[in-house]
Design a protein that fits this description.
The structure is a single chain. This protein is an alpha+beta fold. The protein contains 11 helices and 4 strands, in the order H-H-H-H-H-H-H-H-H-H-E-E-E-E-H. It starts with a helix and ends with a helix.
């Protein structure tokens, strides 16, 4: 699931974002800075203070379960991931994702993270989907917007998508937790899946 890590965490909290946010220490953006710093220092305890990994991965599985047609068009064998089947696999998928995130933060190695994934009889590739949305060639472009709504905050992180000569905005949701903010969700993952499926269809028809 190494590309899932890139999609959910690394690009959203990557080096470019780290330096951009450094001066915004006390707000939601500051929480992203602190999460990025925790990745760099391999501190899982600090990382989980600013990223609710269970919440993020759980929401991702739910969102993907609603996008059967998009998944089918983006991944070989994607039809196996439709709705009910994927929901049945949700506990195993969420657990595997959490283990991989922990292994990556602790070691800094994507290979070690992938090796940490438990073996499953049915392989569901969330990483394959992630790589369709944010490829290894994608670059962090900057913050598109940031807003606070009471104890919730929403930050739009713009990244390039070279394969389609465009950019996408990954919106992350954070929630105030006393004296700090914590990332809890990627709120537009369904829209990203649909958009990339359409772009891929257009590319293949050229």
């Amino acid at each position: 699931m190494k590309k899932l890590l890139l999609f959910v965490l690394l690009l959203a909290l990557g080096a470019g974002g780290y330096y951009y946010y450094r001066s915004l220490k006390n707000g939601p953006q500051g929480a992203l800075v602190s999460a990025a710093a925790a990745v760099q220092t391999h501190d899982m305890v600090a990382f989980e203070k600013y990223v609710d990994v269970n919440s993020v991965t759980s929401h991702l599985v739910d969102d993907m379960a609603q996008q059967g047609s998009a998944i089918s068009s983006l991944l070989p064998g994607g039809s196996l991931m439709l709705g009910g089947a994927m929901r049945l696999l949700k506990p195993a998928l969420a657990k595997a994702a959490h283990q991989e995130v922990q292994r990556y933060v602790e070691t800094g190695s994507l290979e070690a993270a992938a090796a940490a994934a438990p073996k499953r009889a049915v392989k569901v590739s969330l990483t394959g989907l992630a790589s369709k949305i944010v490829s290894p060639d994608s670059k962090f472009k900057g913050v598109k917007y940031a807003r606070e709504e009471g104890d919730n905050a929403f930050v739009g992180l713009e990244v390039s998508q070279p394969k389609y000569d465009t950019t996408v905005v990954v919106e992350v949701k954070l929630r105030r937790q006393g004296d700090h903010w914590q990332m809890t969700q990627i709120t537009n993952s369904t829209e990203l899946l649909r958009g990339v499926a359409l772009l891929e269809k257009k590319r293949l028809l050229k």
